[in-house]
Design goal:
Elements: H1 2-9, E1 14-22, E2 27-36, E3 39-49, H2 55-63, H3 68-74, E4 80-88, E5 94-103, E6 106-116, H4 117-125
Antiparallel strand pairs: 1-2, 2-3, 3-6, 4-5, 5-6
Length: 126
Amino acid sequence: MEQIVADILKRNVSFKVIEQTPIGQTEYLRKIIISADQFPIVSATVRFDSKTIPQYILAELLRKKEGIGTILQKHHAAVHRRAIIITVSTDGEKITRDYEIVQDGSVWFQISEEIRLDLLYACQNG
């Protein structure tokens, strides 16, 4: 998602892990923001279980430096996204989507994402 926003805006965007905390013995909750010009374009909440993810990917997640897509791409992970629900707000200013990242039938990540179209357009026109 970070690369998509950068490509749309034709400028650098920043990725930041706001919070990453254990929510169980092996489960984690990760909150991220992708921003452009200090505007939060994408905010996402990610749930994952350390039991289902290879150790080399988990180690990078725990460093909190890169997004999940970047990490998976770097390791050539054969995953796919399975959409759960996608909605557009009635005012057309944001899209929310819930989806899973799946590898060989095993859910690695559950992601809930909000994309602020109003801020994306403002940055694109600015």
